[in-house]
Design brief:
alpha/beta
Length: about 450
């Protein structure tokens, strides 16, 4: 007996960067997994049925780099360069955060992601235990990393992150996993990075880090260490365990070869990178070298949304423009980067795809909208025409977390009230207090 049967739905599968549409199929779910996909399955074999007519079933999107609780700072720092963004706005404001603030900010970000068809996120932030609690309650799947900086208390930070890892890694029936989260080579000393890498090895987990975001960061690394950020990360052992490197906008062919040789995945967040004017990773060159490139949103303070499909759309357009080639980053590849490539980046088997035996992480996208019709190409309609509001139903680990646009695991009205009650306090800026300091980096 199946637990849930989705009937008469078009199904998107992606094979080697090529979209495949199974028209008018049924999807059967048992427990946490997809049990069957077929043209017709008897409804008498299921405990519950869901009519999928007029919808496209898609693998749940995977957000490979985010700061979920930064939903609290959406729109507070616009049209400013990255140094001012950090030092004058974000890092001072983040000193106002309490774990309870982070919890409600995380729920707001998780609600937005679910409403946009995101079923898994790799998050990098503070008070990660509060985020883990929000993830557990929401039903989301997440890879969490507690952000670490060098400083007088770095050993305490590392001990706290280690304890968090031991407590939450594999929690919520393995919906929550934990990696170590050193912030970046420009905010962490090489000796601290080595200790973080050693801790990750001892705990059997990976590393999630920001890397080579700007040309100035690369120039600073060369001046201080005689190595690029990518080579410094390799030398300090960060690539001896599974690793996600966010942004990686400024790299040499040697850097790309190093990433490929060590199996380091790159999480690209094109909206943030374009918005801050820092540059976007050479995605086509990286993919050609064998690097897994996945899509993320970054935080809502720099990206404004947690819409992974928007990231896929922007990156596809950017690569076509950058290479002056309309064939660059085709539809199937862009959608794969938002799904299966994300699963590979997180080293999480059996998610990011719609096939028998996979985890039942999927979304239903309604097709009967003026901005999608007529349907000449369903995959093109999804990438270039659909909107988050078109996502009607979301299932994670076999559990419905949204049905007909109604969130079933998050009390959104309460979340909005709790967030609104905190905004005046959270947006008081005291620039002498900062989470960290963005250094005065030299221009290349």
């Amino acid at each position: 007996m199946y637990d849930l049967l989705i009937q008469r739905v078009d199904v998107l599968q992606i094979a080697s960067g090529r979209p495949i549409i199974l028209a008018q199929h049924d999807i059967a779910i048992t427990g946490q997994r997809i049990a069957a996909i077929a043209p017709a399955i008897s409804p008498g074999l299921a405990r519950e049925t869901l009519d999928g007519a007029g919808h496209l079933a898609i693998p749940g999107f995977i957000n490979s780099h985010a700061h979920i609780a930064m939903s609290l700072f959406r729109g507070v720092a616009e049209d400013v360069p990255i140094e001012e963004w950090f030092n004058s706005f974000i890092w001072p404001l983040e000193t106002n955060l309490t774990p309870e603030d982070v919890y409600w900010g995380a729920l707001l970000g998780l609600a937005e992601m679910i409403e946009a068809g995101v079923t898994c996120v790799a998050d990098h932030y503070f008070a990660a235990d509060a985020i883990a609690q929000a993830v557990q309650e929401s039903g989301m799947r997440a890879l969490l990393a507690w952000t670490l900086f060098s400083g007088a208390d770095e050993q305490d930070q590392l001990a706290r992150a280690s304890q968090f890892t031991q407590q939450w890694h594999g929690a919520a029936s393995d919906r929550i996993r934990v990696w170590m989260g050193p912030h970046a080579p420009y905010t962490c000393t090489p000796s601290f990075l080595r200790r973080v890498a050693q801790t990750a090895r001892e705990l059997g987990v990976g590393i999630h880090i920001h890397l080579a975001e700007t040309a100035a960061q690369v120039a600073q690394s060369m001046a201080a260490h005689g190595q690029s950020p990518v080579q410094l990360a390799r030398a300090t052992g960060l690539f001896d365990v599974p690793a996600i490197a966010a942004h990686v906008a400024h790299v040499t062919p040697e850097d790309i070869a190093t990433l490929a040789a060590h199996g380091v995945a790159v999480a690209v967040t094109p909206k943030t990178e374009m918005k801050l004017g820092i540059g976007v990773a050479p995605v086509t060159a990286m993919r050609s070298a064998g690097v897994t490139v996945a899509l993320g949103s970054d935080g809502a303070a720099s990206n404004n949304t947690y819409d992974v499909l928007e990231s896929a759309r922007l990156l596809a357009l950017l690569e076509k423009l950058r290479l002056n080639d309309a064939r660059a980053l085709p539809i199937g590849v862009a959608l794969e980067m938002a799904t299966a490539a994300g699963a590979r980046a997180l080293q999480w088997d059996d998610i990011g795809l719609l096939q028998v035996g996979a985890r039942a992480d999927l979304a239903l996208v309604q097709l009967a909208t003026a901005h999608i019709q007529p349907l000449h190409d369903l995959a093109a309609a999804l990438l270039y025409s659909s909107q988050p509001a078109d996502v009607s139903t979301v299932i994670i680990d076999g559990r419905m977390v949204m049905r007909n646009r109604e969130l079933l695991t998050i009390d959104k009205p309460r979340v909005l009230r709790e967030v609104a009650a905190r905004i005046e306090r959270l947006t008081q800026r005291h620039t002498e207090q900062r989470m960290a300091v963005y250094p005065d980096l030299p221009v290349e």
